[in-house]
Amino acid sequence: ESLSLRREYDDKKPIAETISNLADVAYSEGEYEQANKLCEENLTLQRELGDKRSIALSLNTLGMISYSQGNYEKAKTLFQESLDIRSTLGDKRSIAYSLNNLGLTEFSKGNYERSEQYYKESLDLQRELGNKQGIAASLHNLGLASYFQKEYERAREFYEESLTIHRELGDKRGISSSLYNIGNADIYYGETERAKKLCEESLSLRREIGDKLAMTESLI
Predict the structure, then answer these.
(1) Which of 98, 100, 176, 201 could form a disulfide with 122 if both were Cys (CB 3.0 to 4.6 A apart)?
(2) What sign has the CA pseudo-torsion 97, 199, 160, 144?
(3) pTM over 0.90
(4) Which helix (H) or strand (E) holds 128?
(5) How far is the C-alpha of 30 from the C-alpha of 33, rounded, in Å?
(6) Which runs of consecutive H residues, i.e. helices, occur in 50-111?
(7) How far apart are CA 57 and CA 48, in angstroms?
(8) Is residue 219 classed exposed, middle or buried when 0-12, 13-18 and 19+ CB atoms within 10 A define those classes?
(9) Could you tell me which of 185, 136, 177, 135 has the C-alpha nearest to residue 156?
(10) What's the distance, CA 183 to chain centroid?
(11) In 128-151, which positions are buried (b, 16+ CB within 10 angstroms) versus exposed (e)?
């Protein structure tokens, strides 16, 4: 009986992994209904397997699908459920990303102060882990939260710290985004020449990496 159960477990695991990969592909291609269906199927299998780490990942992916469809309340519920599991596992890196996702959800709902709280918690963990990419992303998001609360100087400080890290990493997409955001903040201090220079630098980088959507933003 033990061997039979082990065989059943071994059979389900690769199936779940395949379904998870298919869900990721569907999500990346914007096929949200298909991605959601596959992810729900994967979640069911992971619950049967009792794999908490994979359950949390599936819940997070379902949250991202809901978020991408503008269903922020459902996304928040899924992100929170994922965070609760990750907290019991003590996986700080995953916890940091869950906190960031909750911040994104609150930000999209216009709850900027609440989003800032999540971003700060995420940043603290990313600093503890020494994850520079995660630190830069959290600083960028904190900048946006400050900007939309009309705290432009504070926003600029977050953006500039994020820019420094993106330059260290050679992350051109991150550099271009930070430059554009700093330029936006500069406008509120009447520093139009500096803002123009930064936005032009941002546009040049976005052309270099072929980010057409971001190029449109830079031209506004």
Answers:
(1) 100
(2) negative
(3) no
(4) helix 112-129
(5) 9
(6) 52-68, 72-89, 92-108
(7) 15
(8) exposed
(9) 185
(10) 23
(11) eeebeebbbbbbbbbbbbbbeeeb
